[in-house]
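Tokens in:
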């Protein structure tokens, strides 16, 4: 049974990997996104011609989603990428991965609300990847994020959450007003305590723990 950690403990591990061991945060993001893409491909094995929608916010969770999208596109999977907000507001490593996609001419669509084309794409997708909010979320979710999450929950056939379902508190399992209801959660390094408390078990679906390269000696 793997250790189950709080959000603060996970954040401390990431910080130690970067500052004490010199592992680039971009390397961790690349490993995380690739692992998500692999799990998405496993979930699509019964679909001959698959369609995936990757829905991103603006932070590190979005960066993981953008990496996953790149690997899915490179694997020949029809992948649509959405950013809730302005692409030029992507943060740090996420912005770097957004720039990589732009240079590769992989389009990212900005959405300010769940308009009809977005709803249609979500409805038709075989899998929707939730990369909106990560474990750092600590506030109530407002528009346009709220409407986007509600649309995904209502319309998606199958949802894979990146690290944590958007809207779930990773420590106490409470939700911030609205939360993705995932069929599968691909979480990094260790399960989070919030997966097993309060709303957690109803929101995470099947939890898959993946290694993103943090040395075991840290933990």
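Residues out:
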């Amino acid at each position: 049974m793997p250790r189950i950690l709080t959000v603060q403990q996970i954040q401390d591990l990431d910080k130690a990997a970067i500052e004490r061991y010199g592992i680039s945060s971009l390397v961790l993001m690349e490993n995380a996104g690739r692992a998500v893409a692999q799990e998405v491909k496993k979930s699509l094995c019964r679909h001959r011609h698959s369609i995936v929608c990757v829905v991103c916010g603006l932070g590190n969770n979005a960066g993981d989603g953008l990496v996953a999208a790149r690997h899915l596109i490179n694997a020949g999977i029809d992948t649509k990428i959405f950013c809730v907000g302005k692409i030029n507001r992507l943060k740090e490593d996420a912005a770097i991965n957004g720039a990589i996609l732009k240079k590769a001419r992989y389009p990212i669509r900005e959405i300010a609300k769940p308009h009809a084309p977005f709803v249609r794409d979500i409805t038709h997708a075989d899998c929707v990847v939730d990369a909106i909010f990560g474990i750092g979320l600590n506030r109530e979710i407002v528009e346009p994020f709220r409407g986007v999450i509600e649309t995904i929950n209502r319309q998606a056939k199958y949802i894979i959450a990146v690290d944590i379902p958007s809207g779930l508190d990773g420590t106490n399992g409470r939700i911030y007003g609205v939360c993705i209801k995932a069929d599968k959660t691909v979480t990094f390094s260790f399960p989070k305590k919030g997966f097993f408390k309060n709303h957690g078990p109803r929101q995470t679906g099947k939890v898959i723990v993946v290694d993103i390269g943090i040395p075991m000696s840290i933990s």
